[in-house]
Amino acid sequence: MYVCICKAITDRDVRQALDEGCCCMRDLKERLGVCSACCKCAPAAKALLEEHMADAGLARLARSVA
């Protein structure tokens, strides 16, 4: 699904950037151009970021319990 129509950025693009180390909206903007035009993509990009961070937190928690 397209997250940013202005820059043709998909949710896959955002997820890949997050997997490769982007950890905030500023990183996503610098790497992909998210929120650099009309900014209507901000809510979707932020939701993907929050989902990624939550998943990463759960992964860290699972490793610490094991």
Automatic annotation (TrEMBL):
Residues 2-51 form the BFD-like [2Fe-2S]-binding domain. InterPro entries: BFD-associated_ferredoxin, BFD-like_2Fe2S-bd_dom, BFD-like_2Fe2S-bd_dom_sf. It holds the Pfam family Fer2_BFD. GO terms for molecular function: 2 iron, 2 sulfur cluster binding; metal ion binding. Signal peptide: none annotated. Its cofactor is [2Fe-2S] cluster. Belongs to the Bfd family. This is Bacterioferritin-associated ferredoxin. It comes from Alkalispirillum mobile.
